[in-house]
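Figure S7 source data.
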Amino acid sequence: MKTAFITGVTGQDGAYLSEFLLSKGYIVHGLKRRASLFNTDRVDHLYQDPHVENRNFILHYGDMTDSTNLIRLIQVIQPDEIYNLAAMSHVQVSFETPEYTGNADGLGTLRILDAVRLLGLENKTRIYQASTSELYGKVQEVPQSETTPFYPRSPYAVAKMYGYWITVNYREAYNMFACNGILFNHESPLRGETFVTRKITRAASRIALGLQEKLYLGNLDAQRDWGHARDYVRMMWMILQADKPEDWVIATGKTTPVREFVRMAFAEVGIELEYKGEGVNEKAYVKSCSNPEFQLKAGKEVLAVDPKYFRPTEVDLLIGDATKARTKLGWIPEYDLKALVSEMMEWDVKLMQKDKHLQTGGYDTYNYYE
Ligand code: NDP
Ligand code: GDR
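Tokens for the predicted guanosine-5'-diphosphate-rhamnose complex:
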């Protein structure tokens, strides 16, 4: 029976990876931050009463900025595998919190690697580092593969660049089984609400149900290679089961503009959109609505651009080449973009229907527009 330690266990990937590893018979330890409210929504279904013996899902308080905490936990857990997923993961927010992002995402990675080294676990513990397609940043070549040069375009990406290289360096310097997964964007119903895909599927559901008037977005031209988180966490595990430690690109190989993702989300519930205008004046209107459940009239404006969501430096185009993962590890994604959008819309429509019932019953519900 193997033991895994997941930092960022309460995040999107942490939740899917926990489920996956538990299904493989692992004992899973997770790092969670102390918060003034419960922050374990995504893993609550895995929670086990701490008074029960032989638990296989155990959460520990900690923080990526606290070396002594990380060293102590790794010493106690003695993990076979560490998945370092914890990060301040929002690109736009990293422009507002650059120093903290560098500390948690960059130095945080060093703290994990060095804890393993200090504890003499180099030969026992394999380490997965959550690297990112944001490393490619300003387009150097398409599609982007393991050999494409990096050009990070945000404090987040620069911090992750440190994480990438310190992982490579510890592998080479201390012979550690430490690997980077360079993952392109991956989404799901568990995606954080302020990332663009989830912001869109939540808003499309709320607009359809009459709970929200309009969706405001930033750059509609940005193109992303969107996959499903469930497919990507499987690959994280495969990376640590490989014969030797290497770095891997994980992507679908298809790219889609934000504008098209919006169209697909609305179409999923029978609402056809038409776009008019350009740049900051671009808007989308309802062209037709074939779903009798929704009272949307043709001509209703449902999308406008708000420049506050523009980034000081943007990553325009990401499209990944995962040939190495496919051919050497046999990784094949099960979801395409249509299936992803469909699952996210189904989830959010159900969630917002609950909100609507609550509102009808006289209870308050809230929606934040970030
Ligand atoms: P999320 O933002 O959903 O989850 C991030 C996790 O990190 C949360 O559990 C969060 O805790 C935790 N965390 C943040 N800061 C700290 C800290 N200082 N100490 C301890 N824990 C912390 O991210 P995803 O699940 O989407 O992504 C997982 C990892 O993969 C991240 O490192 C991300 O940068 C990277 N990545 C993600 C991609 C994607 O498309 N999703 C693509 C490529 C890389 P809390 O719940 O308390 O906020
Ligand atoms: P990204 O994801 O920056 O690629 O980072 P995000 O969903 O935030 O943005 C994708 C693209 O959409 C554009 N965009 C908007 N983005 C947000 N969040 N909100 C908006 O209103 C909006 N309007 C347009 C953005 O400008 C961008 O071009 C994600 C994170 O998960 C990182 O942690 C991870 O490393 C990368 O994916 C790969």
